[in-house]
Amino acid sequence: MRIGHGYDVHCLTEGRALVLGGVTVPFALGLQGHSDADVLTHALMDALLGAAGLGDIGRHFPDSDERYRGICSIELLKEVANLLQEHGYTLENADITLIAQRPKIAPFIPAMRENLAETLHCRQGQINIKATTEEHLGFTARERGWHATRCA
Ligand code: MG
Questions:
Q1: CA 63 to ligand 1 center in whole angstroms
Q2: How far is the CA of 99 from the centre of ligand 1 (A)?
Q3: Selection from 82, 68, 77 nearest residue 43 by Cα
Q4: Strand ranges of the sheet holding 30-31, from the earlier edge strand across to the other edge
Q5: Cα 42 to ligand 1 centre (Å)
Q6: Cα–ligand 1 centroid distance for 89 (angstroms)
Q7: From 45, 99, 112, 144, which residue has the greatest number of CB atoms within 10 Å?
Q8: In 3D, which of 101, 103, 109, 111 has the Cα closest to residue 132?
Q9: What is the distance between the alpha carbons of residues 126 and 98, in angstroms, rounded to a whole number?
C-alpha cells in the first residue's frame, strides 16, 4: 500500500466561476488559475501522483502549456486515472479537506463525490470530502484564497 499527500492553493478573484470537484458552486468570487482552478481536484491529483511515485501535476500539466488553459480539471483527473491504471495502481480511498471561509459547500459535496468517483472508477464511499474554515484567521478568512489538502 502506498500513501500520497496533495496540497493546493488558489486565489479568489472576481469574474471567475468557483469550480470544486467538477461542480460549479454559486458564489460572487471564483478561483484564479491557468485551468478552471479546481483546487480540490488539484490536491486530489497531486496525492494520487505522489502515492504512485509519478511526480506532480505541474510536471504532467504545466501551466505554461496552452492546451491546459481553462481546461476542466476533471479532464486532467481522467488522465491521472489512466496513468494510475497503466502503472497497475487502484485507489483504496481518498480523504480531502477544503479550507475556506465561505460559502458553505456541504450541499455540493454529494455531487463532487459523484464526479470524482465516476472519474476514478470507484465507489463514492471511497471518496470523502470535508470542509473547514480557519476561524477567521489566515488568508481564507480575508477571502483572498482557498486551499485543499488530501491523503490517498
Ligand atoms: Mg492548482
A1: 9
A2: 14
A3: 77
A4: 30-31, 5-13, 145-151, 94-99, 127-132
A5: 5
A6: 23
A7: 45
A8: 101
A9: 17
- Report the separation in Å between the CA atom of 72 and the middle of ligand 1, taken as the mean of its atom positions: 12
Q: What is the dihedral of CA 114, 147, 78, 16, to 10 degrees?
A: 90
Query: Using 50, 70 and 90 to split pLDDT, how confident is the model at 101?
Result: confident
> Model confidence over 16-73: pLDDT tens digits?
999 999 999 999 999 999 999 999 999 999 999 999 999 999 999 998 999 999 999 9
Q: How confident is the model at residue 93 (pLDDT cuts 50, 70, 90)?
A: very high
CA of 10 to the centre of ligand 1 (A): 6
C-alpha 92 – ligand 1 centre gap (Å): 23
> DSSP of 32-57, one letter per residue?
-SSS---HHHHHHHHHHHHHTT---H
